[in-house]
Amino acid sequence: MEFFRKVDVNTNEQGIKNTGQFKNLERISAQLFLLETLNEHQAAIGSLWGEFTLTRQEIKGGLRFSLLECPNALAWTVTTGYEPAPDSVMVHLTINRTEKDQEFLEEIKDFLDDHAKHLKKAFDS
């Protein structure tokens, strides 16, 4: 399944990469908290779904994050400069399921809404 949020802010790829560092995790989400930075690309984090290893990859247009131990293979990207909204930030989240219960889908919706709110605040300031 895939989910999207468009965040109407003006930034660029480097702005996303700078803001999306592990040390700034609270700037992009209130639902993730840093437990320990493991290395440049991985951190131990806590979330509403439990503790995970969060990976951070720099990609064309921004960043890709993933929860390594997540049974739903939850991953998301934060990018700008490309369709469907080249002048905005797009958050694109995927899981490896075609169906999930409504409660989990609501949690994903809340996660994305929180992410969008925090990104808007981070880039509007």
Give the CATH H-level superfamily: START domain
Radius of gyration: 14 Å
CATH architecture: 2-Layer Sandwich
Helix-strand category: alpha+beta
Percent of residues in beta strands: 35-45%
Major sheet strand order: 1-7-6-5-4-3-2
Main sheet characteristics:
7 strands, antiparallel
This entry's quaternary arrangement is: single chain
Query: Strand-and-helix sequence, N→C?
Result: EHHEEEEEEH
Count of DSSP E strands?
Answer: 7
Number of helices: 3
Q: How far is the first residue's CA from the last residue's CA?
A: 33 Å
Low-confidence stretches: none
Kindly state the mean pLDDT as a whole number? 95
CATH topology: Alpha-D-Glucose-1,6-Bisphosphate, Chain A, domain 4
Helix coverage percent of residues? Answer: 25-40%
CATH class: Alpha Beta
The global form is globular
The number of distinct structural domains comes to 1
Q: Care to describe what's here?
A:
There is one protein chain. With 125 residues, this protein is α+β, with helices and mostly antiparallel strands. It has a single domain, classed as START domain (Alpha-D-Glucose-1,6-Bisphosphate, Chain A, domain 4, 2-Layer Sandwich). The chain is built from three helices and seven strands, in the order E-H-H-E-E-E-E-E-E-H. The radius of gyration is 14 Å and the shape is globular. The relative contact order is 0.25. The mean pLDDT is 95.
